[in-house]
Amino acid sequence: VTNVELACASSSRAVMLAADAIAGGIYDLALVIGAEKMQRGLLGGGEMQASYQSLMGLFIMPGAYALMAHRHMHEYGTKPEHFAKVSEKSHRNGALNPYAQYQQPLSLEEIMNSRMIAEPITLYQCSPTTDGASAVVVASAEKARQCTGKPVYLGAWAGATPIYHRDEPELSEGPTDIIARKCYEKAGVGPEDIDVAQVHDAFTPGEILSIEHLGLVPEGEGGPFVWEGGTEITGKIPVNTDGGLLSRGHPLGATGGAMIAELTRQLRGEAGPRQVQGAKTALLHNAGLGGVNVMILQS
């Protein structure tokens, strides 16, 4: 038994470590379990990052994402409505998911008029406090074919840890763009080949930033792309078809496994009313306190 801790990205990193061990011939079958029982109050401590940002209170996630949102608005003309549109889409998808924490759609007006948390992020643009669990079976190709008639293959996987004391002024979600390029190269695909994606949308700006850093849309064009329906189930690049962290829920250590489960359903054609037609190649992006993981899954 191996314990893996990477906050929100724990279970996806555990899947990657299991895949490494299987690729190295150490094992041929592994079970990855992610579970979380959330606290209901603020976390203590703060020792991990002693930069001036954290001393100003910016280690609180809504504040950090709000700063990135404002920078994006300043540089590219992104509008508050673009961020709110992410939540509208996610809650619409969550209403189609029996495993989602929130199963009711929300209107754009309801989202934008909900309580302000960190401007421009309102309450319904924040992922909820969630208890949950996920499980992923990882196997060699030979073993997988013995276990199921519908194996899903890991075409590539990579993870990296951001440098916490960079204090850089530009927009950043850590090394997402770097490891995404490595995964595309290893899997022999490009962003244009992705049929469906799961990205880390703990707060609505995260989805817009992620699809840009992953190369799914050009830099600065994420807001209009979302607004025009590009990330809908029937859009050009369906994103977070199960409702994402915003609607399905965000049980930290279980989140990555839940993201993999949704992509597996999509690639097997088992997603029901959320199904992306003809999905063959999927992309996962899962961020945590101390690391970012990217995977490419293929049917």
From TrEMBL:
Q: Which residues cross the membrane?
A: 50-69
Class of enzymatic activity (EC top level): transferase
The Thiolase N-terminal domain, residue ranges = 3-141
> Keyword Transmembrane: yes or no?
yes
CDD domains according to UniProt: SCP-x_thiolase (cd00829)
Which GO molecular function, any one, fits this protein according to its record?
A: acyltransferase activity, transferring groups other than amino-acyl groups
Q: Which UniProt keywords apply?
A: Lipid transport, Lipid-binding, Membrane, Transferase, Transmembrane, Transmembrane helix, Transport
Q: What is its EC number?
A: 2.3.1.176
* Location of the Thiolase C-terminal domain: 170-289
What InterPro entries would the database entry show? Thiolase-like, Thiolase_C_2, Thiolase_CS, Thiolase_N
Q: Which PROSITE patterns match?
A: THIOLASE_2
Output one GO BP term: lipid transport
> PANTHER family, from UniProt?
ACETYL-COA C-ACETYLTRANSFERASE, NON-SPECIFIC LIPID-TRANSFER PROTEIN-LIKE 2
Q: What name does this protein carry? A: propanoyl-CoA C-acyltransferase
Q: Which organism is it from?
A: marine sediment metagenome
